[in-house]
Amino acid sequence: MSYAYLFKYIIIGDTGVGKSCLLLQFTDKRFQPVHDLTIGVEFGARMINIDSKQIKLQIWDTAGQESFRSITRSYYRGAAGALLVYDITRRETFNHLASWLEDARQHANPNMTIMLIGNKSDLTHRRAVTTEEGEQFAKEHGLIFLETSARTAHNVEDAFINTAREIYRKIQDGVFDVSNESYGIKVGYGAGASGQPVAKVGEEPKKTGGCC
Ligand SMILES: Nc1nc2c(ncn2[C@@H]2O[C@H](COP(=O)(O)OP(=O)(O)O)[C@@H](O)[C@H]2O)c(=O)[nH]1
Ligand SMILES: [Mg+2]
């Protein structure tokens, strides 16, 4: 299926916070209580619509364990968006956010959009991190924030779609050189009848050589 843009996302955060479940809920609209541990990196894709444009999200789901951190790092570079996930019932996953952000800042492009997600919002009786703490952390670090439940699907669509809206807004504002795929954005064909690339917005002259 044709698209106006393709955005690459990466999902990061500690093991067990629900990264794979969030991806499955978004791509397949189902919750799988027992999910195999993600080994290395897996990916899913789904088409969404923003501003009457078809946008394909290509989402890379990473393993949270320290032993896979170096593999994960190599995926930051080509990502336009990141979902940084913690588990509202496990405070240590919230405490580790700073180290995940440090990794992202070091390895990703500086304009990558980061959505902070407090997952497992259905487990209210086991909550260990308040919504206000999540909001505060997001505000301090310039992130967008939502609490989600991969189990009930609460806010899962919004988490992925709001991130895409923000990336789309940055394209409109000319923040990215969209001809440079290392930003995690690909301009597609087909939304227009003319067969021309749909987006010319924010395009800059093509860079030669080097990266990023
Ligand atoms: N109650 C509840 N459990 C969840 C939710 N998301 C994930 N889980 C559970 O948390 C565990 C870890 O999920 P998984 O997606 O494998 O975590 P990952 O290691 O971050 O990919 C699994 O047992 C899931 O069933 C959620 O929103 N609510
Ligand atoms: Mg996983």
From TrEMBL:
| Gene Ontology terms, MF aspect | GTP binding; GTPase activity
Q: How does it sit in the membrane?
A: Lipid-anchor
Output the GO biological process annotations, alphabetical, semicolon-separated. Answer: protein transport
Task: Name where it's found.
Answer: Cell membrane
Pfam families cross-referenced by the UniProt entry: Ras
- Source superkingdom: Eukaryota
Recorded GO CC terms: plasma membrane
**Main location as per UniProt:** membrane
Provide the protein name.
Answer: Uncharacterized protein
